[in-house]
Amino acid sequence: MSLFNAYMSLSGVTDATVTRGERLAHHTTLHVGGPVGLWIVAHGYTGLARVVTVLDRERVPWVVLGRGSNVLAADKGFEGAIITLDDEFARLSVGDDGTVTAGAGLLLSKLVNEAMRHGLSGLEPCVGIPGTVGGAVSMDAGTRHEWIGKRVHDVVTYRPGEGMRRYDGGEIEWGYRRCTLPADEIILETTFTLLPAEKAAIAADMDARLRRRRQSQPVGKPSCGSVFVNPGTSSVGMLVEGCGLKGLVKGGAQVSTTHANFIVNNGGATAADVVSLMGTVHDAVLERYKVDLRPEVKLVGFGA
Ligand SMILES: Cc1cc2nc3c(=O)[nH]c(=O)nc-3n(C[C@H](O)[C@H](O)[C@H](O)COP(=O)(O)OP(=O)(O)OC[C@H]3O[C@@H](n4cnc5c(N)ncnc54)[C@H](O)[C@@H]3O)c2cc1C
Known about the structure:
The protein contains seven helices and 18 strands. By secondary structure, it is α+β, with helices and mostly antiparallel strands. It folds into three domains: 86 residues, 2-Layer Sandwich (Uridine Diphospho-n-acetylenolpyruvylglucosamine Reductase, domain 2); 125 residues, Uridine Diphospho-n-acetylenolpyruvylglucosamine Reductase, domain 3, CATH 3.30.465; 83 residues, Uridine Diphospho-n-acetylenolpyruvylglucosamine Reductase, domain 1 (Alpha-Beta Complex).
Protein backbone atom coordinates (compact mmCIF):
# COMPACT_ATOMS: atom_id res chain seq x y z
CA MET A 1 0.00 0.00 0.00
CA SER A 2 1.29 3.45 -0.78
CA LEU A 3 -0.65 6.25 0.84
CA PHE A 4 1.98 8.69 -0.33
CA ASN A 5 1.67 7.68 -4.00
CA ALA A 6 -2.10 7.93 -3.73
CA TYR A 7 -1.83 11.35 -2.14
CA MET A 8 0.53 12.57 -4.87
CA SER A 9 -1.63 11.16 -7.66
CA LEU A 10 -4.76 12.74 -6.24
CA SER A 11 -3.43 16.13 -5.24
CA GLY A 12 -4.02 17.50 -8.75
CA VAL A 13 -7.56 16.19 -9.15
CA THR A 14 -9.91 19.16 -9.39
CA ASP A 15 -13.11 17.32 -8.58
CA ALA A 16 -11.96 16.00 -5.18
CA THR A 17 -10.18 17.45 -2.16
CA VAL A 18 -7.58 15.34 -0.39
CA THR A 19 -6.13 16.14 3.03
CA ARG A 20 -3.95 14.25 5.47
CA GLY A 21 -4.08 13.85 9.23
CA GLU A 22 -7.81 14.53 9.72
CA ARG A 23 -9.08 12.98 12.95
CA LEU A 24 -12.17 10.81 12.87
CA ALA A 25 -13.24 12.36 16.17
CA HIS A 26 -14.08 15.48 14.13
CA HIS A 27 -16.21 13.53 11.67
CA THR A 28 -18.20 11.16 13.88
CA THR A 29 -21.15 12.10 16.09
CA LEU A 30 -19.61 10.18 19.01
CA HIS A 31 -16.53 12.44 18.70
CA VAL A 32 -14.15 9.52 19.00
CA GLY A 33 -11.43 8.26 16.64
CA GLY A 34 -7.84 8.90 15.61
CA PRO A 35 -6.22 10.12 12.38
CA VAL A 36 -6.95 8.84 8.89
CA GLY A 37 -4.34 8.38 6.17
CA LEU A 38 -6.29 10.38 3.60
CA TRP A 39 -9.48 12.35 4.05
CA ILE A 40 -11.17 12.75 0.69
CA VAL A 41 -14.15 14.85 -0.26
CA ALA A 42 -15.46 13.91 -3.71
CA HIS A 43 -17.23 16.89 -5.26
CA GLY A 44 -18.44 15.09 -8.39
CA TYR A 45 -18.58 11.80 -10.25
CA THR A 46 -15.36 12.26 -12.24
CA GLY A 47 -13.42 13.00 -9.07
CA LEU A 48 -14.94 10.05 -7.25
CA ALA A 49 -14.15 7.60 -10.05
CA ARG A 50 -10.56 8.88 -10.21
CA VAL A 51 -10.17 8.66 -6.42
CA VAL A 52 -11.37 5.06 -6.26
CA THR A 53 -9.23 4.03 -9.25
CA VAL A 54 -6.08 5.50 -7.67
CA LEU A 55 -6.81 4.08 -4.21
CA ASP A 56 -7.40 0.60 -5.63
CA ARG A 57 -4.26 0.86 -7.80
CA GLU A 58 -2.17 1.83 -4.74
CA ARG A 59 -3.94 -0.81 -2.63
CA VAL A 60 -5.13 1.77 -0.12
CA PRO A 61 -8.18 0.49 1.76
CA TRP A 62 -11.08 2.95 1.72
CA VAL A 63 -14.39 3.46 3.44
CA VAL A 64 -17.27 5.75 2.48
CA LEU A 65 -18.58 7.84 5.32
CA GLY A 66 -21.70 9.97 5.58
CA ARG A 67 -21.84 11.99 8.77
CA GLY A 68 -20.36 9.21 10.90
CA SER A 69 -23.53 8.99 12.98
CA ASN A 70 -23.53 5.21 13.20
CA VAL A 71 -19.78 4.72 13.41
CA LEU A 72 -17.30 3.80 16.12
CA ALA A 73 -13.81 4.78 14.96
CA ALA A 74 -10.66 3.32 16.53
CA ASP A 75 -8.37 5.42 18.72
CA LYS A 76 -5.46 4.57 16.42
CA GLY A 77 -7.50 5.88 13.49
CA PHE A 78 -7.64 4.30 10.05
CA GLU A 79 -4.56 3.83 7.92
CA GLY A 80 -6.48 4.11 4.70
CA ALA A 81 -8.75 6.63 3.03
CA ILE A 82 -12.12 7.93 4.06
CA ILE A 83 -14.28 9.12 1.16
CA THR A 84 -17.17 11.51 1.68
CA LEU A 85 -19.55 12.91 -0.92
CA ASP A 86 -20.49 16.55 -1.40
CA ASP A 87 -21.61 19.14 -3.98
CA GLU A 88 -22.77 17.16 -7.04
CA PHE A 89 -23.81 14.42 -4.61
CA ALA A 90 -25.82 16.73 -2.36
CA ARG A 91 -28.50 17.68 -4.88
CA LEU A 92 -32.22 17.23 -4.56
CA SER A 93 -34.93 17.33 -7.19
CA VAL A 94 -38.66 16.88 -6.85
CA GLY A 95 -40.57 15.32 -9.76
CA ASP A 96 -44.18 15.97 -10.78
CA ASP A 97 -45.11 12.37 -10.06
CA GLY A 98 -44.42 12.26 -6.30
CA THR A 99 -40.83 11.16 -6.72
CA VAL A 100 -37.91 12.86 -5.02
CA THR A 101 -34.33 12.22 -6.11
CA ALA A 102 -31.58 12.91 -3.59
CA GLY A 103 -27.80 12.69 -3.79
CA ALA A 104 -26.14 10.39 -1.27
CA GLY A 105 -24.23 13.26 0.33
CA LEU A 106 -27.38 15.27 1.09
CA LEU A 107 -28.35 15.52 4.74
CA LEU A 108 -31.28 13.26 5.48
CA SER A 109 -32.92 16.10 7.41
CA LYS A 110 -32.94 18.25 4.25
CA LEU A 111 -34.63 15.48 2.27
CA VAL A 112 -37.23 14.91 4.98
CA ASN A 113 -37.99 18.63 5.29
CA GLU A 114 -38.15 19.22 1.53
CA ALA A 115 -40.56 16.30 1.12
CA MET A 116 -42.78 17.85 3.79
CA ARG A 117 -42.54 21.29 2.14
CA HIS A 118 -43.80 19.76 -1.12
CA GLY A 119 -46.66 17.95 0.63
CA LEU A 120 -45.11 14.52 0.09
CA SER A 121 -45.51 11.88 2.77
CA GLY A 122 -43.48 8.73 3.52
CA LEU A 123 -40.25 9.93 5.04
CA GLU A 124 -41.67 11.04 8.40
CA PRO A 125 -40.14 8.02 10.25
CA CYS A 126 -36.73 9.43 9.34
CA VAL A 127 -37.25 12.78 11.04
CA GLY A 128 -34.52 13.47 13.58
CA ILE A 129 -32.19 10.74 12.31
CA PRO A 130 -28.76 12.30 11.82
CA GLY A 131 -26.61 11.61 8.77
CA THR A 132 -26.84 11.57 5.01
CA VAL A 133 -29.16 9.99 2.47
CA GLY A 134 -26.41 7.53 1.49
CA GLY A 135 -25.89 6.45 5.09
CA ALA A 136 -29.64 6.11 5.63
CA VAL A 137 -30.13 3.97 2.51
CA SER A 138 -27.10 1.82 3.32
CA MET A 139 -28.36 1.27 6.89
CA ASP A 140 -32.07 1.14 5.92
CA ALA A 141 -32.58 3.76 8.61
CA GLY A 142 -35.88 4.32 10.34
CA THR A 143 -37.79 3.10 13.34
CA ARG A 144 -38.28 -0.48 14.39
CA HIS A 145 -41.35 -0.86 12.20
CA GLU A 146 -40.89 1.72 9.41
CA TRP A 147 -37.77 2.18 7.38
CA ILE A 148 -36.53 4.20 4.44
CA GLY A 149 -36.12 1.21 2.10
CA LYS A 150 -39.90 0.95 1.81
CA ARG A 151 -39.89 4.27 -0.05
CA VAL A 152 -37.00 3.60 -2.41
CA HIS A 153 -37.87 3.59 -6.11
CA ASP A 154 -34.32 3.06 -7.28
CA VAL A 155 -30.70 3.53 -6.25
CA VAL A 156 -27.76 4.50 -8.43
CA THR A 157 -24.36 3.29 -7.22
CA TYR A 158 -20.77 3.44 -8.36
CA ARG A 159 -19.18 0.05 -8.81
CA PRO A 160 -15.38 0.32 -8.66
CA GLY A 161 -13.77 -0.60 -11.96
CA GLU A 162 -17.11 -0.72 -13.77
CA GLY A 163 -19.02 2.53 -13.36
CA MET A 164 -22.60 3.37 -12.50
CA ARG A 165 -25.25 0.77 -11.72
CA ARG A 166 -28.94 1.19 -11.12
CA TYR A 167 -31.02 -1.01 -8.83
CA ASP A 168 -34.80 -1.04 -8.56
CA GLY A 169 -35.94 -0.64 -4.96
CA GLY A 170 -37.82 -3.93 -5.34
CA GLU A 171 -34.73 -5.95 -6.23
CA ILE A 172 -32.95 -4.86 -3.04
CA GLU A 173 -33.76 -6.76 0.15
CA TRP A 174 -34.42 -4.30 2.94
CA GLY A 175 -34.08 -5.41 6.53
CA TYR A 176 -33.60 -4.09 10.01
CA ARG A 177 -30.60 -1.72 9.70
CA ARG A 178 -29.29 -3.46 6.57
CA CYS A 179 -29.86 -3.85 2.86
CA THR A 180 -28.45 -6.13 0.18
CA LEU A 181 -26.76 -3.47 -1.94
CA PRO A 182 -23.21 -4.75 -2.56
CA ALA A 183 -20.92 -3.55 0.23
CA ASP A 184 -18.18 -2.50 -2.20
CA GLU A 185 -20.45 -0.13 -4.14
CA ILE A 186 -20.90 3.55 -3.34
CA ILE A 187 -24.44 4.87 -3.25
CA LEU A 188 -24.59 8.00 -5.42
CA GLU A 189 -28.26 8.87 -5.65
CA THR A 190 -31.65 7.52 -4.59
CA THR A 191 -35.13 8.18 -5.92
CA PHE A 192 -38.01 7.86 -3.47
CA THR A 193 -41.69 7.38 -4.28
CA LEU A 194 -43.82 9.42 -1.89
CA LEU A 195 -47.52 10.08 -1.51
CA PRO A 196 -49.30 13.43 -1.63
CA ALA A 197 -50.63 14.53 1.76
CA GLU A 198 -51.58 17.66 3.69
CA LYS A 199 -48.42 19.57 4.54
CA ALA A 200 -49.80 20.44 7.99
CA ALA A 201 -50.55 16.79 8.75
CA ILE A 202 -47.03 15.72 7.75
CA ALA A 203 -45.53 18.52 9.88
CA ALA A 204 -47.66 17.56 12.89
CA ASP A 205 -46.63 13.91 12.58
CA MET A 206 -42.97 14.93 12.35
CA ASP A 207 -43.29 17.17 15.41
CA ALA A 208 -44.82 14.35 17.45
CA ARG A 209 -42.07 11.97 16.38
CA LEU A 210 -39.39 14.53 17.25
CA ARG A 211 -40.90 15.04 20.70
CA ARG A 212 -40.89 11.28 21.34
CA ARG A 213 -37.31 11.08 20.14
CA ARG A 214 -36.21 13.87 22.49
CA GLN A 215 -37.83 12.05 25.41
CA SER A 216 -36.44 8.63 24.61
CA GLN A 217 -32.95 9.29 23.22
CA PRO A 218 -29.95 11.20 24.61
CA VAL A 219 -30.11 13.72 21.75
CA GLY A 220 -28.10 16.40 23.57
CA LYS A 221 -24.98 14.25 24.05
CA PRO A 222 -22.51 12.88 21.52
CA SER A 223 -23.40 9.28 20.62
CA CYS A 224 -23.39 6.89 17.67
CA GLY A 225 -27.07 5.97 17.83
CA SER A 226 -28.11 2.48 18.83
CA VAL A 227 -25.07 0.40 19.66
CA PHE A 228 -26.60 -3.07 19.25
CA VAL A 229 -29.28 -4.41 16.92
CA ASN A 230 -32.52 -5.21 18.76
CA PRO A 231 -32.79 -9.01 18.77
CA GLY A 232 -36.16 -10.25 17.51
CA THR A 233 -38.94 -8.55 19.43
CA SER A 234 -36.72 -7.76 22.44
CA SER A 235 -35.41 -4.29 23.11
CA VAL A 236 -31.70 -4.01 23.84
CA GLY A 237 -32.45 -1.04 26.09
CA MET A 238 -34.70 -3.20 28.30
CA LEU A 239 -32.19 -6.08 28.37
CA VAL A 240 -29.36 -3.76 29.42
CA GLU A 241 -31.56 -2.17 32.08
CA GLY A 242 -32.49 -5.65 33.29
CA CYS A 243 -28.78 -6.31 33.84
CA GLY A 244 -28.55 -3.14 35.94
CA LEU A 245 -26.09 -1.52 33.54
CA LYS A 246 -27.94 1.71 32.68
CA GLY A 247 -25.62 4.58 33.57
CA LEU A 248 -22.49 2.40 33.76
CA VAL A 249 -19.38 4.54 33.25
CA LYS A 250 -16.02 3.69 31.73
CA GLY A 251 -13.62 6.62 31.37
CA GLY A 252 -15.45 9.34 29.44
CA ALA A 253 -18.09 6.95 28.07
CA GLN A 254 -21.37 6.00 29.70
CA VAL A 255 -24.31 3.70 29.01
CA SER A 256 -26.93 6.41 28.56
CA THR A 257 -29.27 7.02 31.48
CA THR A 258 -31.97 7.98 28.92
CA HIS A 259 -31.75 4.94 26.63
CA ALA A 260 -29.56 2.00 27.59
CA ASN A 261 -28.82 1.02 23.96
CA PHE A 262 -26.94 4.30 23.53
CA ILE A 263 -23.42 4.97 24.77
CA VAL A 264 -22.69 8.65 25.21
CA ASN A 265 -19.45 10.58 25.32
CA ASN A 266 -19.45 12.70 28.48
CA GLY A 267 -16.18 14.29 27.40
CA GLY A 268 -12.83 12.72 26.60
CA ALA A 269 -14.21 9.25 25.85
CA THR A 270 -11.95 6.95 23.86
CA ALA A 271 -12.94 4.15 21.52
CA ALA A 272 -11.37 1.79 24.08
CA ASP A 273 -13.82 3.09 26.72
CA VAL A 274 -16.73 2.46 24.37
CA VAL A 275 -15.51 -1.01 23.36
CA SER A 276 -15.08 -1.89 27.04
CA LEU A 277 -18.67 -0.85 27.82
CA MET A 278 -19.92 -2.77 24.77
CA GLY A 279 -18.07 -5.87 26.00
CA THR A 280 -19.53 -5.58 29.51
CA VAL A 281 -23.05 -5.11 28.14
CA HIS A 282 -22.69 -7.94 25.62
CA ASP A 283 -21.40 -10.43 28.20
CA ALA A 284 -23.96 -9.49 30.87
CA VAL A 285 -26.89 -9.83 28.42
CA LEU A 286 -25.53 -13.15 27.16
CA GLU A 287 -25.17 -14.50 30.68
CA ARG A 288 -28.53 -13.29 31.98
CA TYR A 289 -30.76 -13.64 28.91
CA LYS A 290 -28.74 -16.01 26.66
CA VAL A 291 -28.98 -13.34 23.93
CA ASP A 292 -25.88 -12.78 21.79
CA LEU A 293 -26.09 -9.06 20.91
CA ARG A 294 -24.78 -7.99 17.49
CA PRO A 295 -23.33 -4.49 17.01
CA GLU A 296 -25.40 -2.10 14.90
CA VAL A 297 -22.66 0.49 14.97
CA LYS A 298 -20.13 0.20 12.12
CA LEU A 299 -16.50 -0.19 13.19
CA VAL A 300 -13.82 1.78 11.36
CA GLY A 301 -10.11 1.17 11.90
CA PHE A 302 -10.37 -1.92 14.10
CA GLY A 303 -8.82 -4.27 11.54
CA ALA A 304 -5.31 -5.67 11.97
C1 LIG B 1 -28.70 10.61 18.28
C2 LIG B 1 -28.81 9.56 17.19
C3 LIG B 1 -30.05 9.01 16.92
C4 LIG B 1 -30.18 8.04 15.91
N1 LIG B 1 -31.42 7.53 15.66
C5 LIG B 1 -31.57 6.61 14.67
C6 LIG B 1 -32.86 6.07 14.36
O1 LIG B 1 -33.86 6.41 14.97
N2 LIG B 1 -32.94 5.18 13.35
C7 LIG B 1 -31.87 4.78 12.63
O2 LIG B 1 -32.02 3.97 11.71
N3 LIG B 1 -30.63 5.26 12.91
C8 LIG B 1 -30.46 6.16 13.91
N4 LIG B 1 -29.21 6.64 14.19
C9 LIG B 1 -28.04 6.09 13.49
C10 LIG B 1 -27.60 6.86 12.23
O3 LIG B 1 -28.00 8.21 12.33
C11 LIG B 1 -28.16 6.25 10.96
O4 LIG B 1 -27.72 4.93 10.80
C12 LIG B 1 -27.77 7.08 9.71
O5 LIG B 1 -28.57 6.66 8.64
C13 LIG B 1 -26.31 6.95 9.33
O6 LIG B 1 -26.04 7.95 8.34
P1 LIG B 1 -24.58 8.56 8.11
O7 LIG B 1 -24.63 9.37 6.88
O8 LIG B 1 -24.10 9.25 9.33
O9 LIG B 1 -23.75 7.23 7.84
P2 LIG B 1 -22.38 6.81 8.53
O10 LIG B 1 -22.63 6.62 9.99
O11 LIG B 1 -21.31 7.72 8.12
O12 LIG B 1 -22.16 5.40 7.85
C14 LIG B 1 -23.01 4.32 8.18
C15 LIG B 1 -22.76 3.20 7.17
O13 LIG B 1 -23.24 3.61 5.90
C16 LIG B 1 -22.21 3.50 4.92
N5 LIG B 1 -22.38 4.58 3.95
C17 LIG B 1 -22.51 5.90 4.19
N6 LIG B 1 -22.66 6.59 3.03
C18 LIG B 1 -22.61 5.66 2.03
C19 LIG B 1 -22.69 5.72 0.61
N7 LIG B 1 -22.84 6.88 -0.04
N8 LIG B 1 -22.59 4.57 -0.10
C20 LIG B 1 -22.43 3.38 0.54
N9 LIG B 1 -22.34 3.26 1.88
C21 LIG B 1 -22.44 4.38 2.62
C22 LIG B 1 -20.91 3.62 5.71
O14 LIG B 1 -19.83 3.02 5.02
C23 LIG B 1 -21.28 2.87 6.98
O15 LIG B 1 -21.17 1.48 6.79
C24 LIG B 1 -29.05 7.61 15.19
C25 LIG B 1 -27.80 8.17 15.47
C26 LIG B 1 -27.67 9.14 16.46
C27 LIG B 1 -26.32 9.74 16.73
